[in-house]
Amino acid sequence: MNISFDWLKEYVDLGDMTPEQLDDLLTFSGLEVDSREKVETVKGGLEHVVIAQVMTCEPHPDSDHLHLTTVDVGGERPLNIVCGAPNVAAGQKVVCARIGAKIYTSDTEFYEIKKGKLRGAVSEGMLCAADELQLGHDHDGIMVLPADAPVGMPAKEYFGVKDDCLLDVAITANRMDAISHIGVARDVVAVRNTREGMHLKLKWPEVADDLTPTTAGEAIKVTVEDADLCPRYTGITLRNVRVGESPQWLQDRLRTVGLRPINNIVDVTNFVMMEVGQPLHAFDADRIGGGHVVVRCLPQGTKFVTLDGVERELDKRDLMICDEHEGMCIAGVFGGQKSGVTMETRNVFLECAYFNPVSIRKTSQRHTLKTDASYRYERTCDPNITEWALRRAVKLVRELAGGDVCGAMVDLYPQPIEKPMVEVSFRRVFDLAGQEIPVESIRTILTSLDIEIAREDAEGMTLRVPTCKADVTRECDIVEEIMRIYGYNNIHVDERVNSCLSYSSKPNPRRLQNVVSDYLSDNGFSEIMNNSLTKSAYYTGNADFPEDACVAVVNPLSKELNVMRQTLLYGGLECVVRNLNHRILDQRLYEFGRSYSRNAECADDLSQPVTKRYVETRHLSLWMTGDQYAESWKVAHTPTDFFFLKSYVMNILRRMRVNISCLESRPTTCGYLSDGVDFLFRDSRKRLLSMGVVSKQSLNLLDCKQPVFYADIDWDLLLKSYPSKEVTYCDIPRFPEVRRDLALVLDNAVTFEQIEQVAYATERKLLRRVGLFDVYDGKGIAAGMKSYAVSFVLQSPDKTLTDKQIDGVMERIRKNLESQLGAKLR
Asked: Cα separation of 426 and 593, whole Å?
């Protein structure tokens, strides 16, 4: 990736920084500079070329087209120069290449001006045409300058030829955000703000804010037939443009980074691509058949002629930009021969799109076409920069070629790609870095890199990452961004060598799993480990786990192991049935395991990554059947029931430090449970667990004759909800607690959970516990009603409660229960 030192200054204040210092800054912040080269806007920098005046001009005696001239170059004496240009004449101000000047015929080839003889006449230099000096394309004669051109002035100064430094930056595949001048400038801003304590801001260039149509006529219509391969397509129609050569400054910018100027329209698209990293394409709007752009794939074997004049055979998977009749461009790779902008073009359609990077890479490989556009698209462009880039291009086109906006800008973006949210723990940053980094430095780094801090507390941050950083999606990616800007050479290397056998983030998932496993095992549960492969018959006609969502095994060993499990339920039931067949009637089982399913939205889209096409989730499942306790003369026969299972589930949640008040219960929606509840987080509405009695239909699949109670916990979600703060301990209360009971008559629809919510909402400071110790719906209770005996435990950490305080609290609770739930004292 070529970066112009002079161009970079437009987006960041480099101050007195030299190219050598910029080289070091970039290399030590993760952008390795492979080479550094001095360049000029004109190859060779017009060294030894000066402004001169022709003093005399006589025909050559031995030639019918050569002239003998004496030329004043501002030196001690005039030079004798033989010139073959037909327009040379005495008195002209011209450009003279003196002995030692290099005249470039290409980027690498040149010839040097030497003293010599032509037809016997001595020649001490050369009078130059515009194209010989790369100052234009005219070769009809020598350049004739205005009369006020100062004789002896270096041509480099007269024509404003500037020196520049070109840095060849090695962009790795994960640094698409730095594949432009603005991207590199962003890193420079972050590094200087962090390491030098500066307060630089990235200088974004101006764009066209007003795109109100200024001319009548029909704009180009756009249809995207394959939104998976083209998630976003932005375009605009401009009429009455004047296609011509680009101004010198634009040509110089492009030549410096190795691009050949073509015309002002095409040059603008290339300029914006090098500026912000977003490729654009310009079509001759009059050559778009039917005035309609269609983004689609063409049939296998379709012939298409690209800009280089080569006829190529398309693959049915190649995404094409077409009109109503034929293809115009291989999307994101190479333009077509027929639809490009020429000097005769008057109306243009500018395209700025986001294409699927995998599709572009495969198309580029199939046709062995490596272009500036494909290089960027296949590394994942920013899907949310297309509108900005298009507005930038429109502004430049209108400045350089005029033109009127025709119709509204087209922006087809059916499923906007949101900025990913990443949770970052300061402790994790310090652990990975090997030392503590000032939080203020972390904040400076992130904001300078345009990473938005959505939330911050003493423990860490929640970050919103810009979509230009497609590879930054995890906490460790954020740490990498912080460390490269902070500087790896600023990380202190201790003289000691520490080592450890293993390391896990906090909270440590393995440790938490062991905590729960120990609890269950200590309470009579047996851990089971089932095969992740199972049989598809379990999912046939299954509404909870559709057969279409199964991850099928390509070469299954048998029909019993032909798909991956979508749930742990059936594997556990197989264990239950096997144990029942061996007369083990009382069972408590648990399993930590993973479930697998296809993502219905994109499972068949091979262009999508595997991690998106399939879903893998960790679960904790519990199975209980038989009696609650082993047969004994001291314990009555008590079958396992829902509340027995619930007691263990709730204890697991408490050990995982889940705030039960943040959960909401509702009747289960799971078809594999005939009766049960789901627990959801109130804020996110995500289901944490489901539990209840397994339905008859599910039991019949395995010929299970005994009721089974089952709980399924989303272990990934449970781990995510685990508090990051350490447990703190407080003194045992010195003052006694007080209990008051209420016998309440309520409607059958009212649950104990509702009573708890009302009670805790009424008294948050003194109320410690709410308990249900009796339920009655017999004689004396009206139909449709029930009686709950509820206990309320009150306690103050500061003093012994008085009867007046207790009665006041209980009265408020009673009134709220009566007004909100219709409760009456029995």
From this structure: 30
Q: How much of the chain exceeds pLDDT 90, in percent?
A: 77
What SS3 state is found at 34? strand
Contacts of 174 (CB under 8 A, 6+ apart): 471
Report helix, strand or coil for 801.
Answer: coil
C-alpha–C-alpha distance, residues 133 and 302, integer Å = 44
What residues contact residue 351 under an 8 Å CB cut-off, 6+ apart?
A: 233, 234, 235, 280, 281, 282, 283, 293, 321
Helices 264-276 + 181-195 axis angle, to 10: 30
Read off the pTM.
0.57
Q: Is the pLDDT of residue 136 over 90?
A: no
- Three-state DSSP string of 82-95: EECCCCCCCCCEEE
- Distance of alpha carbon 307 from alpha carbon 103, whole angstroms: 30
* pLDDT the model gives residue 506: 66
Nearest to 351 by CA among 176, 178, 220: 220
Beta strands in 84-226 (DSSP E): 93-98, 102-104, 110-112, 116-118, 121-123, 125-127, 144-145, 163-169, 221-224
pLDDT at 486 over 70: yes
| Predicted confidence band of residue 502 (pLDDT cuts 50, 70, 90) | low
Q: Is 406 in contact with 348 (CB distance < 8 Å)?
A: no
CA–CA separation, 449 vs 117, rounded Å? 62
Asked if residue 331 lies in contact with residue 297, where contact means CB atoms within 8 angstroms, the answer is: no
Q: Percent helix, strand and coil across the chain, each rounded to 5?
A: 30, 30, 45
| Cβ contacts of 191 within 8 Å, gap of 6 or more | 25, 29, 485, 487
Contact 405, 236 (CB under 8 A): yes
Tens digits of residue pLDDT in 250-290: 998 998 898 999 999 999 999 999 999 999 999 999 999 99
Q: Are 384 and 320 in contact (CB under 8 A)?
A: no
Q: Which of 411-415, 438-442, 640-644, 728-732 is predicted least confidently?
A: 728-732
Residue range 782-786: average pLDDT? 91
Cα separation, 181 vs 189, in Å, equals 12
**pLDDT value of position 373:** 93
- The candidate with the shortest Cα–Cα distance to 377, out of 353, 348, 395, is 353
Could you tell me if residue 291 is left (phi over 0), alpha (psi between -120 and 50 degrees) or otherwise beta?
A: left
Helix/strand/coil for 799: coil
What tokens appear for 409 in the block? 């800008």
Buried b (16+ CB within 10 A) or exposed e, 310-324: eebebbeebbbbbbe
- Secondary structure of residue 499 in the 3-state scheme: coil
Mean pLDDT of the chain: 92
For residue 336, count other CB atoms closer than 10 A to its CB.
20
